[in-house]
Design goal:
Blueprint lengths: L2 E3 L5 E6 L13 H20 L2 E12 L7 E12 L3 E12 L5 E14 L10 E3 L3 H8 L1 H21 L8
Parallel strand pairs: 1-7
Antiparallel strand pairs: 2-4, 3-6, 4-5, 5-6
GO molecular function: long-chain fatty acyl-CoA hydrolase activity
InterPro entries: Cytosol_ACT, HOTDOG_ACOT, HotDog_dom_sf, Thioestr_dom
Protein name: Acyl-CoA thioester hydrolase YkhA
Length: about 170
C-alpha cells in the first residue's frame, strides 16, 4: 500500500478579521470560521489522496477562544488517519493579536473526507505516516474518534428514519 507523510499534505491559511466578519459580540462569526476550516481541510485531503474529495462529516468544531478584529487567524490542517477511502483531517486554529503578537489556540476541528474517482466512487487512499510528537498523538487517538464517528452515524441514520419529511403547510 502506498503511504505519504503528514508533512506532504500539511496546509496553512492566514486571514485578517474584518468588521464584516464579526457578529454582534464583535467576534468572528462561527460560520465564517467553519467555512475556513472546511476549505483548508478539503485542500489537505485532496493533496493527500491526489483525488477529488468530499466532506463526509464535520466531526467536531470546538471554539475555545473568541477571535477579535484585532487578531489574525491562522489555520493549520493535516491528515491524521486514513481508512480505505476516508481520511480524518485535523485543523488547528491559531489567533495572533496583531498589536501584541500574543498567540493562542482559538479552535480545533476534526473532519472526515472521502476520496472519489472519476465516477464519484470511493477510491483507496495512501496510508498516513506521522513523524512529530503532535502528529503521532493525533494518529494514536484516531481509532477512538473513528469508533465514535461510526456510532454517531448509526444513531443519526436511526434518528433520520424517525423524522418527518412533510412541511407544515402540506
Amino acid at each position: 500500500m502506498e503511504h505519504r507523510f503528514v508533512k506532504e499534505s500539511r496546509c496553512y491559511k492566514t486571514a485578517r478579521i474584518f468588521p464584516t466578519d464579526v457578529n454582534n459580540h464583535n467576534t468572528l462569526f462561527g460560520g465564517k470560521l467553519m467555512a475556513y476550516i472546511d476549505d483548508i481541510a478539503s485542500i489537505t485531503a485532496s493533496k493527500h489522496a491526489r483525488k477529488s474529495v468530499v466532506t463526509a462529516s464535520t466531526d467536531s468544531v470546538d471554539f475555545l477562544l473568541p477571535i477579535r478584529p484585532t487578531d489574525s487567524v491562522c489555520l493549520e490542517s493535516i491528515v491524521t488517519w486514513t481508512g480505505r477511502s476516508s481520511m480524518e483531517v485535523f485543523v488547528k486554529v491559531i489567533t495572533e493579536d496583531l498589536r501584541t503578537g500574543i498567540r493562542a489556540i482559538a479552535a480545533t476541528a476534526f473532519l472526515t473526507f472521502v476520496a472519489l474517482d472519476e465516477n464519484r466512487r470511493p477510491v483507496l487512499v495512501p496510508e498516513i505516516v506521522p513523524e512529530t510528537a503532535e502528529e503521532l498523538r493525533l494518529h494514536e487517538t484516531a481509532t477512538q474518534r473513528a469508533d465514535m464517528r461510526r456510532h454517531r452515524r448509526e444513531e443519526s441514520k436511526k434518528f433520520a428514519d424517525f423524522l418527518q419529511m412533510s412541511f407544515p403547510w402540506e
